[in-house]
């Protein structure tokens, strides 16, 4: 029952992010489609989000400004999922049925325009979702493929140059909008990506603990990662590049969750380097947080204090 609850939490997290990877597709490389490759029958729906996706989207929307029509358009794209209405309806009526879904592939677009100086062509990531497990959703009737085609064309139009700014015998330089919005979105997406990875890795370790009765009894992050990989299926979820690793708290090695102390206060994983000026931290109860630099210092000092307290308690029992 405990393992089933953890697995259910993992699936719910994936559904909320609208980037669902079912068990039979974890080893497959996600497809990134152009707007032309997007099925003609798709329509947009808005799925209810949970943390950490909702704060990121709300913050991004606020940074764009409600009066900025272009910024609002990009927010609509980021927060919308496109599905085939017939397939989605069939999935709602058949619990467990997976259907294809398409979300705005911001990562691929940022890679196509790393400086954010111009608006790249739209791209969409193909994934799978279980419609019957979606908490709530609302239709976005204006988000059809024809609307998307028109929106892409509009956003990619160069802004007209101001009078007198271009030499008469030279073409005016092309200026593309959205550079500020994409820079903001890139930062928000990077932090959200780390929160998602930490969440998946923490839940994998919790499933491991449910199967073995204890967390991996290891001496290093690399060994903990190897132990959890049977539950992740995708090695890119747990980064191990020098300076960009997700570190494992070996102070919890070999312990059952019930014996680590307050699980919601014990650090299980943390980002080796700062992420947007803070640290991404996963706790032993499975929840994840982004902490500012000052908050992280307090969290880590508390973790060290809990370690010392446990050592003292073990010494007394001996």
Structure description:
The protein is α+β, with helices and mostly antiparallel strands and 318 residues long. Helix content is 42%, strand content 16%. It has nine helices and ten strands.
Roughly how much helix do the residues carry, as a percent range? 40-55%
Q: What is the overall number of helices?
A: 9
Q: How large a portion of the residues is in β-strands, by DSSP E? A: 15-25%
User: What is the CA-based Rg, rounded?
Assistant: 23 Å
Overall mean pLDDT stands at 75
Order of helices and strands: HEEHHEHEHEEHHHEEEEH
Distance between the termini: 34 Å
The geometry reads as: elongated
Number of DSSP strand runs: 10
**Strand line-up across the major sheet:** 1-5-4-3-2-6
Output the structural class: alpha+beta
- The poorly predicted ranges are 1-27, 49-67, 167-179
How does the major sheet shape up? 6 strands, antiparallel
Short key terms for the protein model shown above:
single chain; 318 residues; alpha+beta; six-stranded antiparallel β-sheet; four-stranded antiparallel β-sheet; 9 helices; 16% strand
Secondary structure elements and pairings:
Elements: H1 2-16, E1 31-34, E2 43-47, H2 53-64, H3 69-78, E3 81-83, H4 85-93, E4 99-104, H5 106-112, E5 123-129, E6 137-144, H6 145-155, H7 179-212, H8 221-232, E7 246-248, E8 267-271, E9 278-283, E10 288-292, H9 293-317
Helix pairs in contact: 1-7, 2-3, 2-7, 7-8
Q: What's this, in brief?
A:
The chain has 318 residues and is α+β, with helices and mostly antiparallel strands. The protein contains 9 helices and 10 strands.
């Amino acid at each position: 029952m405990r393992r089933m609850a953890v697995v259910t939490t993992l699936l719910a997290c994936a559904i909320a992010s609208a980037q669902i990877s079912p068990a039979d597709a974890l080893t497959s490389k996600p497809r990134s489609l152009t707007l032309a490759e997007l099925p003609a029958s798709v329509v947009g729906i808005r799925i209810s989000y949970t943390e950490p996706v909702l704060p990121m989207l709300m913050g991004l929307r606020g940074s764009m400004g409600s009066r900025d029509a272009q910024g609002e358009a990009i927010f609509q794209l980021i927060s919308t999922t496109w599905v085939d209405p017939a397939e989605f309806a069939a999935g709602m009526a058949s619990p467990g049925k997976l259907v294809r879904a398409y979300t705005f592939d911001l990562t691929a677009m940022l890679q196509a325009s790393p400086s954010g100086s111009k608006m790249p062509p739209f791209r969409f990531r193909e994934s799978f979702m279980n419609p019957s497990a979606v908490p709530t959703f609302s239709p976005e009737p204006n988000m059809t493929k024809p609307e998307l085609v028109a929106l892409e064309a509009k956003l990619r139009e160069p802004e007209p140059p101001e009078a007198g700014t271009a030499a008469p015998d030279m073409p005016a330089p092309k200026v593309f909008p959205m550079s500020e919005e994409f820079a903001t979105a890139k930062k928000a997406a990077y932090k959200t990506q780390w929160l998602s990875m930490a969440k998946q890795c923490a839940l994998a370790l919790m499933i491991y603990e449910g199967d073995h009765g204890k967390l991996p009894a290891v001496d290093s992050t690399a060994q903990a990662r190897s132990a959890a990989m049977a539950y992740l299926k995708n090695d890119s979820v747990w980064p191990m590049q020098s300076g960009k690793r997700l570190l494992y708290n070996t102070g919890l090695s070999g312990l059952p969750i019930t014996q680590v102390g307050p699980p919601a206060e014990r650090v299980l994983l943390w980002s080796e380097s700062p992420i947007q000026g803070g640290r991404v931290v996963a706790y032993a109860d499975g929840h994840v947080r982004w902490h500012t630099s000052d908050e992280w210092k307090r969290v880590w000092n508390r973790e060290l204090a809990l370690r010392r307290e446990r050592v003292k308690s073990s010494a007394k029992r001996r």
